[in-house]
């Protein structure tokens, strides 16, 4: 089962301890085959919408900075519970804030 975890911007700057802890966490998950991809996202983005034949492109940002998705992790696990445990471990490392976990369907 694959899950996508997105994380909102926290508004605080990470310190060296956070970088070190996160580095170990990412290394462990990568070595075990759980972590498939991770990355940060630009704050603005581009919204592409369609209505009938009309396609509209709008430059961002679209949400308050504290609500904007700042990063993601794609994990492959055996169960929802395992995905939740990965998310819990991540939140313990980064501290206060919010992440959203969604199952990815298809291959």
TrEMBL record:
Domain YCII-related: 1-90
InterPro entries in the cross-refs: Dimeric_a/b-barrel, YCII
SUPFAM superfamilies recorded: Dimeric alpha+beta barrel
Source taxon at top rank: Bacteria
Family from the record: Belongs to the YciI family.
PANTHER family, alphabetized: BLL7171 PROTEIN-RELATED
Protein name from the UniProt record: YCII-related domain-containing protein
């Amino acid at each position: 089962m694959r899950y996508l975890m997105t994380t909102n911007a926290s508004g605080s700057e990470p310190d060296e301890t956070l970088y070190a802890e996160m580095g170990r966490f990412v290394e462990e998950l990568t070595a075990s085959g759980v972590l498939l991809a991770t990355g940060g996202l630009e704050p603005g983005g581009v919204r592409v919408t369609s209505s009938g034949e009309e396609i509209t492109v709008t430059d961002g940002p679209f949400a308050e900075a504290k609500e904007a998705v700042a990063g993601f992790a794609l994990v492959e696990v055996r169960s929802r519970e395992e995905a939740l445990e990965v998310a819990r471990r991540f939140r313990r490392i980064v501290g206060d804030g919010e992440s959203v976990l969604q199952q990815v369907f298809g291959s």
